[in-house]
Prior knowledge:
2 copies of one chain form a homodimer. By secondary structure, the first copy, chain A, is an all-alpha fold. Chain A has 3 domains: about 5-110; about 180-210 and about 360-430, no CATH class; about 220-355 and about 430-510, Neurolysin, domain 3 (Orthogonal Bundle). The first copy, chain A, is built from 21 helices and 3 strands. Chain A has a 3-stranded mixed beta sheet with strand order 1-3-2, with helices on both faces. The first copy, chain A, is globular, with a radius of gyration of 23 Å. The interface of A and B includes residues 27 and 43 of A.
Amino acid sequence: MSGTERDASAYGALEARFRRLGLLSGAASMLHWDWATMMPPGGAEARAAQLAELALIRHEMLTDSRVGDLLDEAEAEAEADAAAEDGALDDWQRANLARMRRRWREATALPADLVAALSEAASHCEMVWREARPASDFVAFAAAFAPLLGLVREKAAALGEALGHTPYDALMESHEPGLGTAVVDPLFDDLADFLPEFLGRVREKQAGSAPPPPVAAPVAAQEALARHLMGALGFDFDHGRLDVSLHPFCGGSAGDIRITTRYDEADALTGLMGVLHETGHALYEAGLPEDWRYQPVGRAAGMALHESQSLLIEMQACRSRPFMRFLAPLLHEHLGGEGAAACDADALHRRAIHVEPGYIRVDADEVTYPAHIMLRYRLERALVADDLACDEIPGAWADIHESLLGLRPRCHAEGCLQDIHWSVGEFGYFPSYTVGALMAAQFFAAAARDEPDLWQAIERGDFRPLLGWLRVNVHRLASRHNGPALLERATGTPLSTAVFKAHLQRRYLD
Amino acid sequence: MSGTERDASAYGALEARFRRLGLLSGAASMLHWDWATMMPPGGAEARAAQLAELALIRHEMLTDSRVGDLLDEAEAEAEADAAAEDGALDDWQRANLARMRRRWREATALPADLVAALSEAASHCEMVWREARPASDFVAFAAAFAPLLGLVREKAAALGEALGHTPYDALMESHEPGLGTAVVDPLFDDLADFLPEFLGRVREKQAGSAPPPPVAAPVAAQEALARHLMGALGFDFDHGRLDVSLHPFCGGSAGDIRITTRYDEADALTGLMGVLHETGHALYEAGLPEDWRYQPVGRAAGMALHESQSLLIEMQACRSRPFMRFLAPLLHEHLGGEGAAACDADALHRRAIHVEPGYIRVDADEVTYPAHIMLRYRLERALVADDLACDEIPGAWADIHESLLGLRPRCHAEGCLQDIHWSVGEFGYFPSYTVGALMAAQFFAAAARDEPDLWQAIERGDFRPLLGWLRVNVHRLASRHNGPALLERATGTPLSTAVFKAHLQRRYLD
């Protein structure tokens, strides 16, 4: 399994090199974590330079001319081996080799000056965005965004050529191999048909009962409860941490998973749900196979699959009645106070599944979230294809938002300036959120089918049956298969909207 | 000043490469900080691998064959330039080039397999030491230490050949250029003559009055006071942090200095003095010239000079009567309680300068500390020269300790197993502590001569005169000169024991 054992072979030499790349990625990821959680403001300039240097070294190490030769050789060895009895690469090694080729192809597709120009334009645009968003100043944003968009189009075209995809598909595939427009379009079309009417029925049903008021609690008490819940879910604090950052995320590196959240003293449930969401990501990372820790095949299969693991924990398992029966006494015990005492399991559940169309994606509920994603998917696809000009974004955004959710943003801050993604040149990522939600529903249903005690265990706060199923059917497989293939293998059914829709029906209307 | 401005020249290309090395050092330093302060125990294995990879990349980048060629070219350019009017490298650039050559010489002196073997043997020996120390088990330690010592001797011989020094001198010079045995021997001989009799007189004088009991206080209150004092000293929390670790240190990277301490609820003064000590290190790092941030000439001049900056703050400025007059009301305000109330400035001062021979170096007072260092200096010098065998260490240690301090260690834990240095292959560092103490006395005396208001300002909690003097005469000069040369330039006198002895006389006997 290790490069040194086989280091006479081209494949062994590649494993050794990718181990070095994996270690450098882990180092960079830790420095990102520190940036978001610990770093004093004056450290930003040096940190940005350190991270850029680490990225440059990884790029040099990956695009070094020897890597192309080694890949050719290793692929030839693997073909020759396949005929022989002994010495053949096993399935994992073959999958690893394919992933290495893929990484190399993506890295070599982009000329170094384009990479540098993109990085610079993205840093600049993000800085402009940070000021333009609160000011709702689209004109200022567009001045920095237009040149970045031009570079993104160049990148997409170059990637597309290297991977044999259309430009936008190439961006999507770089986030989740196997997930391009051909897969996503029919899914999103189906949701676009289903959701508006469904939303109307949910709103009608919920109109009768206002959600209970939020539970207020001091940050220290919320944090203690969050740690308790993380432990119940299977998070190992010997191999990870929980901290605070402005935007919650899951980071860190192998054997040391760092998640963050933010607390709102006026509303404990929001912070807790954020912790549960990030814990889902963390459990996936912690469950990746140790033997393949630093190899491409040992990493997460893709961003949609990653999102499926957080949504499975937060949306499928925890925004449920059984979980709220487990949570209610803990909430009372840890948070105390009147608000907590008043919140029984039923009230908590009603609060957790309250549906209300709004402007802001990150605040959206499970039912309206896909609309926010479909909007962005349509627009970014048109932007990359050069079918939409930069200055047409606000109008197109408002029109689609209104058509999907019945609301028209009153300013750019609650419209097209709300997300960071485009301002840093991130295109093709948005679909992952909703594909992840579909996958989460399918995984959870399959786990519940295979583990009949699943819901009773969750109600007892026992997540071992769920985690055990995920370990075997998802986590341990890492990138052995791509996301959609892994889903089908684990659940017996291909990626579709059916299970997600059935879940919504059951949770919101039955 | 920057590599890009001159990147047609060999010197410019070197600056660009050393900038990359500097960024990678900063990244590694941050990951070390995280290891000591934040990392969960399960992260150690991955972190060790990340740090080893970063060290390997730096070594590859520095020993790359092009670097030798560039150094040759740049030195030739500099010589040619020196004759011309225009285009000559300025003094800083020349000093930088000399430092680059020095770094390259040290890095290329050691064959890669020796570096790897040393790193492995040191990791192993440190692990063994961590268990052998509490068990006082010298036999177990020696089994891991003997092979490491063999490798250290090889390293010292190779470095000595490359730098034109004896093996042990080469190790000393790699910690502080300009400080070898020829400089240190007469200083230490003089201290060995002076200190025993002086110690007797101090003990006699202090025998009459027992030091007041320690000040107990909760950790949170100690930390708040520590931050207040750091602020008064000039530490900028926008560019640094204070945290907790088992062994206090100053780390971080340019623009983001991270210091640590440990608190003892039963004795607030110990933790505070530790913070003041590390703040001295931090002020030096923060005061290094920004224009030379990532270049060898912009780094600290050496480890003795670094130690002089921490001892100047802790020993010279803060274990003084004027500082204790500033501290006493703050202690009362922050820590409250009976102990604090009872501690007036005079009692605090008596506690801060209480002298008592002991076994443990890190607990030693200012008067007995040099004995601990001289002991280690004699032994490690004999070990590197192969004049002392591994199994002779405990006996030699006990004999010298007894001769210098009148005490014979009762076990190896309070004898030769107490320090981590040798167990990680660190030889030639110990003299820095006492040379730093001599330098600190000289710097402080010069500052007091140049800033007549210095003591009155300290008594008011105003450290600006002191910091201002250090900025101009020490910090801003970085490695423009080596430590002893910088000291002479700043104070007007060469490195000697005279000022240190006068300081001891004044503080402990007058």
